[in-house]
Amino acid sequence: NIDEIIIAAPENGHREIVRIISYCERGRVSIKVFPDIFQFITSQEGIDDLGGLPLLAVRDYAMRGYLLIFKRLIDFLGAAVGIILLSPLMLLVAVAIKLESPGPVFFVQERMGLDAKPFLMLKFRSMRSDAEKHGPGWTVDSDPRQTRLGSFMRYIKVDELPQLINVLLGEMSLVGPRPEQAYYVNQFRESVPRYMERHREKGGMTGWAQLHGLQGDTSIAERTKYDLWYSENWSVWLDIKIIVRTLWKIIEPTRGPRFSPPPDVPQTSSDSSSNSSEKI
Fold it and tell me: What pTM does this model have?
């Protein structure tokens, strides 16, 4: 039940400070450091005052307290309305899947959600029922494991609609980092800096990274940067923008270039050193 940690360490305690920060990144904990050179620091954004002493904010999160409750309320109402309005389409898709190929209607897979806890994520099955008989693999465009209907569903994102149930149950959010399988999380947590910080939020049906084309065969390191930017700059308005832009990308007649971030958000360059992608 810790909300905030203040570190006042000697100048030679750098290694210990790094260890503490790395440990606290596992949870939603604000971290502030008392600098040795406080007399040279002026008051500015990101610096708090504690009895006349400046505290540098190392980590802070936009979604805390009542804002988490508000976001959950938006998710619940949005998912409930979405399921009601889209239920005829979802029923039609389910029938089409059964008619086209043998196998279940839904593809159920364990993913890592909030605080890296596993949950079962739902999708409409877009591949042959034996697609993973040789183990997990990355999904790419023109994947030979996809059915013809599945390829079309993935193109217009209809296969993601069952995740509204995950949102309704509180396992996912409408907007957030895309959840990964435990197999890949265990790989990325060692190779991608700050990767596990993505799990301080619920996984989302869409996200800031996906809006900018970072999905499929794209850099996990780059995707993580966008996910963390979203977490640290979250607002209701940002969620609305992401949802609206995601819907617009789906109804576009052709796949145009990816959206560019607003002028106040710096665009990071692609990290070619990490060419991992999301398992869909």
Answer: 0.71
pLDDT band at 24 (very low <50, low <70, confident <90, very high): confident
Is residue 105 packed enough to be buried (19+ CB in 10 Å), middle (13-18) or exposed (0-12)?
middle
- Partnered with residue 4 across adjacent β-strands are 30
SS3 106: strand
Closest-CA residue to 276 (of 197, 203, 222): 222
User: Phi, psi (5° rounding) for residue 23?
Assistant: -70, -40
Tokens of 50: 């504690």
Distances in Å between the alpha carbon of 52 and those of 34, 43, 60, 173, 226? 11, 11, 21, 40, 35
123-133 pLDDT per residue, tens: 999 887 655 55
Determine contact, residues 173/203, Cβ cutoff 8 Å: yes
- Burial-class residue 259 by CB neighbours within 10 Å (0-12, 13-18, 19+): middle
- Strand, helix or coil for residue 122: strand
Say which amino acid occupies 163.
Answer: Q
What's at 35, amino acid-wise? P
First to last CA, the chain: 35
In sequence order, what are the beta bridge partners of 120?
Answer: 110
- 137-194 pLDDT tens trace: 555 555 567 788 888 888 888 999 999 999 999 999 999 999 999 988 998 988 898 8
